[in-house]
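On clarity, I found the account of how folds are encoded harder to follow than it need be. What matters is that the chain and its backbone geometry are given together, residue for residue. I therefore recommend that a typical entry be quoted early in the introduction. An entry of this sort, consisting of the sequence and the corresponding backbone structure tokens, reads as follows:
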Amino acid sequence: MAIKAVVFDIGGILELTPPTGYGARWEAKLEHEPGELNRRLGDIWQAGSLGHCTLADVEQAIGERLGMDRPQVEAFMGDLWKEYLGELNVELADYFRSLRPSYRTAILSNSFVGAREREEELYHFSEMSEFIIYSHEVGLEKPDERIFALTCERLGLAPEEVIFLDDWGEAIKAAKAFGIHGVHFQTNAQAIAEINALLEI
């Protein structure tokens, strides 16, 4: 069956997001032990990734659990978003755009409340693809096979008609188990070559 659609992840794919070390800096500033931020905020990170809370809820929890005042919370969130958004992977974004109209394109991303607005403002992902599935908007996240089923449903295609690119091995493993052609990102050149081979370009 011919490939009809190519789906990209965002973080580490369309966005280059190297660690900035903001968490460790804030732990040192607040005199917390290493790893304390995630221990105190793990449930709120999960809730935000599945849309079970608002961004205001996240900010309130950060303030209360870390003992921050409002200016500190705003500074912390600024650092968080700086790492989260990274910078555009221009080469791969240009390649992704070039696939249309010969192929349908979509984006599938584990995400966090507030991501769509910020990514749209910076990178205009909606102009690159037919639609975007964010985990925080649908209440599902990779590697849950239901999010791959939802992607294929929205495309109106069978899994074997779809290619999915991600840098997370578990997501690729799950996509392949569902029947999608998974490409595990290592470098731009490698990813483009593997996708082109599947498309027989």
